[in-house]
Amino acid sequence: MATSGKRISVLTRVRRPAKNPGMTLIGVVGAGVMGVGVAQNLAEVGHQVILVDQKDDILNEALRRLAQNCRLAPMLRGEQVDVSAVMSAVKTSTALEDLGGTATVIENVTEDIAIKRDVYQRLDAICPEGTIFIANTSAIPITTLAAATGRPGNVVGAHFMNPVPMKTAVELIPGVHTSEKTLERARALLAEMGKRAIEVTDSCGFLSNRVLMLTINEAAFLVYEGVASASAVDDVFRSCFGHPMGPLETADLIGIDTILHSVRVLHSYFADSKYRPCPLLIQMTDAGLLGRKSGQGFHSYR
Fold it and tell me: Is residue 209 annotated as a catalytic residue, yes or no?
């Protein structure tokens, strides 16, 4: 694992991984933006993490991004992260089978029900009976994902927000069969991660994305129809409504492909035309203009 550091101001607080007496080995499936953020947050509070994805090049990029995120912590969060300790706490693998010794698995794969269902079926066969699965999904109902396993009582949703280490709250979503024990374990882990759990009912899009994805999709239509530029849309939300970020800046942060997947799930689930995906989101995804992670989305980050 790579290590690195950064000089900081004397006013910056130093944060090292906590000595967690209940430390457990936690699996994180999916090494995209969200998976890296979850792994970083877990490592910072003293957990050992196995980060799993399909290819070594994806995992190598994830480790590069993890180190960079830790180095940027003084500027973004006002605290220095012990980069070496965090990096040494995160191991990587291309084999789901390596999660056979984990007590908890947090899943962060693409918002595609077929892909997620396959992952849960495989995890169900690999992981011990007591392992709980925490689904970090932005739209897919938790009960739907739990049905892919033989342990629906051990499945719960936790919709993390990006960037994960900087956010203090998370949507906690029990499925129809989620047990109270699973909920308690999820609440305890989230509290260790510095997250306040806001419990919401299991429904496609939950609370946040029923509103946010509709807003982003409609903002994309404004650009697509030539009503306003992306800069103007975001300026109105920042300057007139006091939002720290406009909807299209938020889309770039989340990832245009992720936004498109989420809108498509909402459209499919509710069969409501208000969730029809804007053609511009489809075109941008096809063109690889995915936002911050690609360097270009509604705005340029190059």
Answer: yes
**Which of 44, 108, 154, 159 does the annotation list as catalytic?**
159
Residue 100 makes CB contacts below 8 A (sequence gap 6+) with: 126, 127, 128
Exactly one of 41, 69, 136, 209 is catalytic; which is it?
209
| Cα gap 234→275, rounded to integer Å | 21
In the block, tokens 């699973």 appear at 182
CA distance 168 to 30: 22
Reported pTM: 0.86
Instruction: Give residues with Cβ within 8 angstroms of 246, minimum separation 6.
Output: 219, 233, 234, 235, 236, 237, 238
Based on the residue annotation, tell me whether 60 is a catalytic residue of this protein: no
Confidence of residue 96 (pLDDT cuts 50, 70, 90): very high
Tokens 């792994």: give the residue: 39
Cα–chain center distance at 111? 11
Catalytic residue among 41, 138, 154, 217: 138
* Tens-place pLDDT, residues 162-199: 899 999 999 999 999 999 999 999 999 999 999 999 99
DSSP string, 266-280: HHHHH--GGGPPPHH
**Catalytic residue check, 171:** yes
Q: Which residues pair with 133 in a beta bridge?
A: 105, 155
Residues 213, 220 contacting (CB under 8 angstroms): no
Q: Tens digits of per-residue pLDDT, 35-82? A: 999 999 999 999 999 999 999 999 999 999 999 999 998 887 878 889
Specify whether 159 is catalytic. Answer: yes
The CA distance from 220 to 283, in Å, is 11
Active-site hit among 107, 171, 217, 249: 171
**Phi–psi pair at 204, nearest 5 degrees:** -50, 125
